[in-house]
Amino acid sequence: MDLVVGIDIGGTKTKIGLVDNKGVCLEQTFFRTKEYLQLDAYLEQVKKTCDELIANLDFTPNILGCGIGAPNASSKRGTIESAANLAWKGSVPILERLKEKWDVPMRIMNDASAAALGELMFGRGKEMTDFIAITLGTGFGAGIVANGQLIDGYDGFAGELGHVDMTVGDGRLTGLGVRGGLEAYVSATGLKRTIMYMLSKYMDESRFRNVAYNDLHGEEITQAAEEGDTIALRAFDYTARMMALALANFTAFTQPEAFILMGGLVNSGKWILEPLDKYFNEYLLQVYKGKVKILESGMEGKTAAICGAAALIWEKNR
Questions:
Q1: Count of H-run helices and E-run strands, the chain
Q2: Domains and CATH numbers, the chain
Q3: How many CA atoms, within 13 angstroms, populate the side-chain half-sphere of residue 276?
Q4: pLDDT band (50, 70, 90) for residue 86
Q5: Structural contact between residues 125 and 131, judged by C-beta atoms closer than 8 angstroms
Q6: What is the rounded CA–CA span in Å between residue 305 and residue 148?
Q7: What is the pTM of this model?
Q8: CA 110 to CA 131: how far, in whole Å?
């Protein structure tokens, strides 16, 4: 049976899985990216994890290759370039270094662009020619599909919409030093920062009054919203408003049929999605109103990023 290894390199976790030609992840696991500060040790763990996943199968697969989605990855150079949420700085020749340890066909791409390719092949994008996939994890990523083609960009860095300045230079810094950049507000990390902002701005009682920033988790914020915690509700509303304005602006670029959302922040469900839908339709230009949908990923949530990475290889084997 032909399978592809999909690797999603995130700022917090590295997720790895074995994916078939229908986008089904047969085996998956993860390890914590931040525990491997040296690239060589990290790649050794990647190879070890891949070997363990393959050994777990009750058959011997034919591995067609390995696809990798990573922040600030250049599909043209095979490098990761100054990623804000990773320990390895500068231009990291990750594809070249991994090939030294494992001789299989490999491709790498910006994680959000890989996710968009996954949606195009395996998810809701199969029925569309124009959409933008949005990844809401440690940061904010975007992959753009127009006229049925993924927009990769001259150097492989198209879609860095998380670093668009939303406040005209007067706001929070992103990991790349952009003041007022979108991902500083709209991401799992951004939501935590907004909780702290709301605690300083309002005097409402909240379970978060005695919680340190590093002890904040998205699941707790969602639970607090469900319990009616006004600080959590204000934080979700603020996050949704910022995201809605950004998506309304992005609509003018390519007029997508839909924005397809995936990542940890989407797990907050109605607390983020309902205000997002309301504000988005308020901010859209009249010519676009009623024409652009906001959808959740058509791929299984826990494996969407893995399948997107695997799509880089499956695209070349169909």
A1: 8, 13
A2: 2-119+301-317 (3.30.420.40), 127-296 (3.30.420.40)
A3: 23
A4: confident
A5: yes
A6: 20
A7: 0.89
A8: 17
